[in-house]
Amino acid sequence: MKSHSRTISGATPSSLVLVLLAGVLAATAFSGCGKTATASAPGAPPTVEVAVGMEKPISEVQEFSGRLEAIERVEIRPRVSGFITTVNVKPGTEVKKGDVLFVIDQRPYQTEVNRAEAASKSARAKAELARLELSRAERLLGDKAIAQREYDERAAGQKELDANAHAAEALADAARLNLEYARVTAPISGRISKAEITLGNLVDSSAVLTSVVSIDRIYASFDGDESTYQRVAAHNQSGRPIEVRVGLLSEQGFPHEGKLEFVDNQLDTRTGSVRMRAVFANEDRSMAPGLFARVQIGGGNAKNALLISDNAIGTDQSHKFVFVVGAGNKAEYREVKLGPMVDGLRVVRTGLKSGEKVVINGLQRVQPGAPVTPQLVPMAAAAGGARDEGRLAKNDANGKD
């Protein structure tokens, strides 16, 4: 059997080993060139981006969820009983004050009016005759033709008949009023609901025929928090107007402008909120009672505020915090109280001072009191934060290879 100790293409085993070693060295050199020039050295403090809080005057606004409510809402009930003979209700349409909505059988009430008017005329006639007789009695008493007692009786009789005439006229007025009530009219202008009781049914004062809600103006009711109450209560009590804006679920922003009309006199201790209400014009009829509303309430005069990116804010259970780079580039833990968003930045009410450098990217690699390598960047709105976090984490990872 022939020996096959020679390799392919005639290379010896020793030369093949040399080629493999050369390839390993070349691969090692190539991988070393992949590190960036900005990579941190092994054991160096993590690289983070920091920015100085932005100061500018702002007029704070706060947003709440609420519901639209009708300023006036009336349940239409009949004032007299009877059978419904006419229904003039078209559900969902607008009606004007005084429009006839239902008619109850008027014949019994017209008959009562006729009877009462006749009784009133009879009573007036008797009262007029008594006045004439009393006038004659005065002349006879002057001539000493009748006794004083007879004159007094005639005077008393005339007063009684006159009172009866007034009572009969009052009964006639009541009968005419009941006849008028047989025509059920709209007490306010607005949008009507459907007819709850239809033609031919017998109704009384306990029946609800339909309902009408006003639509020219509308309320937006919402629950404000304690800080909002403290901010707007003084303005409201002094009569100074507070602007409120509303946006519906299908709308962008807050296109409807109104005024804060009502702030309740106490806070709900269970929720820490206070009931508030604003009023809005509704000329285009786009707002209807019951709709969900996004409510934005203004804060009055502009005041200086410190703003930071939301990327800089961390959460520790129920507390919000930031890391500030202090002396020796060491991270300091600061608990902060926050306000609303303004132009993409978050208002910081307490916990941060003007001019301090806040970590805005690389937050997850920072430990309280530990040194960091800060890179100063402008304070910007929280956009692209996840991308920057990934870039910084990659740089730190490259530095630890």
TrEMBL record:
Keyword Ion transport among UniProt keywords: no
Classification via Gene3D superfamilies: 2.40.30.170, 2.40.420.20, 2.40.50.100, Helix hairpin bin
Location (main, coarse): other
Domain Multidrug resistance protein MdtA-like C-terminal permuted SH3: residue ranges: 304-365
GO CC aspect terms: cell envelope; plasma membrane
GO MF annotations, alphabetized: transmembrane transporter activity
Keywords recorded for this protein, A-Z: Coiled coil
Domain Multidrug resistance protein MdtA-like alpha-helical hairpin residue range list: 114-182
Coiled coil: 113-140
Keyword flag Coiled coil: yes
InterPro entries found in the cross-reference section: MdtA-like_b-barrel, MdtA-like_BSH, MdtA-like_C, MdtA-like_HH, RND_pump_MFP
Pfam families given in the database record: Beta-barrel_RND, BSH_RND, HH_MFP_RND, RND-MFP_C
Any single biological process term in GO: response to antibiotic
Residue ranges of every copy of the Multidrug resistance protein MdtA-like beta-barrel domain listed in the record: 230-298
Subcellular location: Cell envelope
Domain Multidrug resistance protein MdtA-like barrel-sandwich hybrid residues, every copy: 73-212
UniProt similarity note: Belongs to the membrane fusion protein (MFP) (TC 8.A.1) family.
Protein name according to UniProt: Efflux RND transporter periplasmic adaptor subunit
Organism lineage: Bacteria, Pseudomonadati, Pseudomonadota, Betaproteobacteria, Burkholderiales
